[in-house]
Write a structure and sequence with these properties.
The chain contains six helices and four strands. Helix 1 packs antiparallel against helix 4 and helix 2 packs across helix 6.
């Protein structure tokens, strides 16, 4: 049975996905975005890993104090969900919850390989589509997602026009 709280959460996530669009995204942008995420995480003493991909290639990775190899594995699984569904990993899980469905049971995907847990966001370029992923792992999934959204919003706001 569909869940109204899950539907509201999905609507909020979908609005974020529509909002956080790049006009362009280069490897230099990936480096600057990754450094922004890392600086913010260090300042807050967050025990996370940070990863950015362009296409199928990892172009930024950082593991902060307190993060573990398990966080790397979760980041990879969440990035696969984002790449597969071309939406945030939290949005994938929220979509299933809003439909009253269970991702692990109903997606027909191997949840050991593709995780619908929050923390990875698509890098979407206007007029092009999804070109990569940016994400973190190490906090509860809603906090992972919120941190990435906050940092993407700040990064995009700071970008020069054109």
């Amino acid at each position: 049975m569909p869940d109204s709280n899950a539907a509201a959460e999905l609507a909020r996530i979908e609005a974020e996905e529509r909002e956080l669009i790049f006009d362009r995204f280069t490897r230099e942008d990936a480096w600057r975005l990754g450094c922004r995420l890392r600086e913010a995480a260090v300042a807050r003493e967050l025990p996370i890993v940070i990863g950015i991909t362009v296409g199928r290639q990892r172009v930024f990775h950082s593991a902060l104090a307190g993060a573990s190899p398990d966080n790397d594995a979760w980041l990879e699984r969440k990035a696969r969900a984002t790449a597969h569904f071309e939406r945030s990993s939290f949005g994938v899980g929220a979509w299933f919850r809003a439909q009253g469905r269970d991702y692990e049971r109903d997606s027909r995907l191997d949840a050991r390989e593709i995780a619908a847990n929050g923390g990875v966001f698509p890098i979407t370029v206007r007029g092009v589509g999804v070109v990569g992923t940016v994400g973190v792992s190490g906090l509860p999934q809603a906090e992972d997602h919120a941190f990435v959204v906050e940092q993407l919003r700040a990064f995009l706001t700071a970008q020069p026009e054109g």
